[in-house]
Every structure is written in C-alpha cells, then in structure tokens.
C-alpha cells in the first residue's frame, strides 16, 4: 500500500458524504493506501474537526484513524523546515519524509515549495489528482 500524508483541510473535506472527494476517505477505509500520521498531525486533525463539528465527532474520527491497520505512525526526530510561508505545514513534510511517503495530498499552495527542492522528493497532489491515481 502506498504511504500518503493528507493535509488537515483535505481530511476535513473528505469526511463529508457530500464532498466530491469522499472516495479518498472510502479508499482509506478500504485500506487502499496507508495514511501516515504523527502526533502533531493527529492533534491538528482533532482540533480542526472539533472546531468544525463537535468534540464527539472529532474524537470518533481520531479513534477510527487510530484503530485502522493501514495507518503508519511516525515520530519525526528532525525538522526539515521546507515551508517557509507557513512553518505550521512543516509537520506534514516531516511526517512524509520520516514515513517514506512520496505523496502529500493538499490544496495548500504553500506546499509548492517542495517542487523547488530536489530533496526530499515528495509529490504534492491535489485531491482530484490523488483520486485519479487511486482509480488507476
């Protein structure tokens, strides 16, 4: 299974049954890819989901992620500092690098900084592009 990191805003969107990108969440649940997370990412997921829904929903989503077999937990011991425009986004790059993931799914243009750097090589895909890859 391909290791993937999903930005928080994308994760929040794909949880909705009305989202056109919901098949990404369904593919995760079907174990079609490995979701890579760190404690920092899980904390942000919970915080943002809680702000947009309820604490109960946020807790349920985190527990569901926590209990999936296709989740890779990493504890990055280094900071690459690749996203100068928004250092808070560095947690996703650090997680991808530590997990050996070659894909970050995001709609955030700050991640364009990765395309200007030869190292580390991490594909930045939009949700539409990732869905297309899942369909192949």
Helix and strand topology:
Blueprint: E1 3-6, H1 8-14, H2 22-29, E2 34-37, H3 39-52, H4 55-67, E3 71-73, H5 90-99, E4 103-105, E5 123-125, H6 127-135
Parallel strand pairs: 1-2, 1-4, 2-3, 4-5
Helix pairs in contact: 1-3, 3-4
Sketch the major β-sheet: 5 strands, parallel
Task: Decide which structural class fits the backbone.
Answer: alpha/beta
Gap from first CA to last CA: 14 Å
Q: Count the E strands.
A: 5
Give average pLDDT, whole number. 89
The Rg value, from CA coordinates, equals 14 Å
- Helices, by number, come to 6
CATH homologous superfamily grouping: 5'-nuclease
Low-confidence residue ranges: none
Residue share in helices?
40-55%
In N-to-C order, the SSE pattern is EHHEHHEHEEH
Number of domains: 1
Strand fraction equals 5-15%
Q: Regarding CATH, which class?
A: Alpha Beta
The CATH topology is given as Rossmann fold
Order of strands across the widest beta sheet?
3-2-1-4-5
Q: Under the CATH scheme, which architecture would be assigned?
A: 3-Layer(aba) Sandwich
Which term fits the overall shape?
A: globular
């Amino acid at each position: 299974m391909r290791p993937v990191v999903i930005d928080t805003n994308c994760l929040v969107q794909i949880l909705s049954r009305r989202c056109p990108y919901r098949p990404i969440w369904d593919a995760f649940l079907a174990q079609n890819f490995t979701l890579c997370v760190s404690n920092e990412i899980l904390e942000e997921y919970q915080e943002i989901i809680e702000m947009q829904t309820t604490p109960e929903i946020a807790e349920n989503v985190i527990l569901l992620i926590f209990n999936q077999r296709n989740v890779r937990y990493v504890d990055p011991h280094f900071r690459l500092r690749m996203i100068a425009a928004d250092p808070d986004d560095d947690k996703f790059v650090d997680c991808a690098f530590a997990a050996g993931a070659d894909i970050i799914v995001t709609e955030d243009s700050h991640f364009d900084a990765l395309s200007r750097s030869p190292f580390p090589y991490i594909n930045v895909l939009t949700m539409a592009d990732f869905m297309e890859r899942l369909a192949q």
